[in-house]
Amino acid sequence: MRMMFVGDSMxxxxxxxxxxxxxxxxxxSAAPGGPYEFVGPRxxxxxxxxxxxxxxxxxxxxxxxxxxxxxxxxxxGWLHMAPLIREAVATHRAGLLxxxxxxxxxxxxxxxxxxxxxxxxxxxxxxxxxxxIRIVALPVVPNVRAHTDPPFAAECERFNERLEKAIVNLxxxxxxxxxxxxxxxxxxHHDTYDGTHPSPSGEHKLAAAFANALHQAWGLGAPYRPGx
Length: 228
Fold this sequence. Notes:
The chain has nine helices and eight strands. It is α/β, with parallel strands linked by helices. It has a single domain (2-218), classed as SGNH hydrolase (Rossmann fold), CATH 3.40.50. Strands 1, 2, 5, 6, 7 and 8 form a six-stranded parallel sheet that branches. It has a two-stranded antiparallel ribbon with strand order 3-4. A hairpin with a 4-residue loop joins strand 3 and strand 4 (52-55). Helix 2 (20-29) crosses helix 9 (200-218) and helix 4 (85-92) packs parallel to helix 6 (112-129). The chain is globular and about 45 Å long.
């Protein structure tokens, strides 16, 4: 199974972090089935000092270079990934996309309706490259801004409703789409280090959301254990 992580700053991670991609690699490395291979055009972390994705300073240097591959970027959302996904899927022969996007769109670029339109474009482009692609998408996990900006919080909820409807409407037997469950006990004080980006506990919770969705819906892997 060739999987591609598609995401924003919460997925690419910053220099010195483990990332939830690493937690997912740890989990699937010990899970039944497989082999599970991570693919994508990028491998780096974002370096905030340098101002770009140039760091390879993962918290665990034993994280294999091949398993670091992804399509994630700091400040990138559905708006940015929709034009890139067809080539990425085709070039790297991805069969499954694990997608965590939307917060950056709503925060800076598009409203809920426009973002949902980019979701539909993203799915169409991915299917052009692989008509049998599977996609698991995570709803937006509100950040600290949602606690202080009620209109932004409402827009996040509006988008999540539209994302759920889009997943249902676009789901197809030959190319199934799945909505992962947002971590119910997510805490910006415990699960992030700055109100947005995941701390180690947050990394585990994001990995668990995808791992449990894969196992429950399609029997891939195993239920997630925080220590895995």
